[in-house]
Amino acid sequence: MKNTILALALATAGLAAAPAAFAQDAAQGNAQQGWYVGANAGYAQVQKGPYDNGNFAGGVKGGYRFALNPDTSLGAEVGYVYLGRADARGQYTQNYANYNGDNGKSKLQGATAGLNLRYSFSPNWYGEVRGGAFFAKGSGLTNDKTNPEMVNFNSTRYYAGLGAGYNINKNISVGLNWDYYDGSQSDKNIHLPTNLYSVSAEYRF
């Protein structure tokens, strides 16, 4: 997985040579272009099998965004997200051997690599869609009510999300976001699909 992340990071860096060509075709407008870093924090919720609750979550990311036209930008980014821990519930806890109220908790985190498409409605307001690969690493109870087991897993899945925000100035913006992370590994019967509701901040160089 480390090699995959490195390759994607290098590919993102390689886009630095392309933006100038796009910029020549994009008239001056509200579209953003350049390197950026960001962070977000909020509440992650799991609703599947043994889990129906959530916890604090957050992440960091960085990438390069270039203008496609006066109001639209495309960015390539990599990041890392921590999606918290959820408590097991119901029959899963009753049938999980040696359950003590804590050892059935799930955990999910992982690296991301993807694209974001940002549309600037005005110099201040923007909307965004994004998605890509989620290199999930987690643990939790299997989706088996009669005989749940605690398993660890690593899988390559996907994430997707929406956001809207406000540009405080040309370098700094804040936003509200919803993202979905498909954290699962079917052959181990572990499923932790997670919705993340967060606030974010971004700095553009």
Automatic annotation (TrEMBL):
InterPro entries, per the entry: Beta-barrel_OMP, OMP/PagP_B-barrel
Stretch forming the signal peptide: 1-23
Keywords: Signal
Ranges where the Outer membrane protein beta-barrel domain occurs: 14-205
Name under which the protein is recorded: Opacity protein-like surface antigen
UniProt source species: Dyella japonica
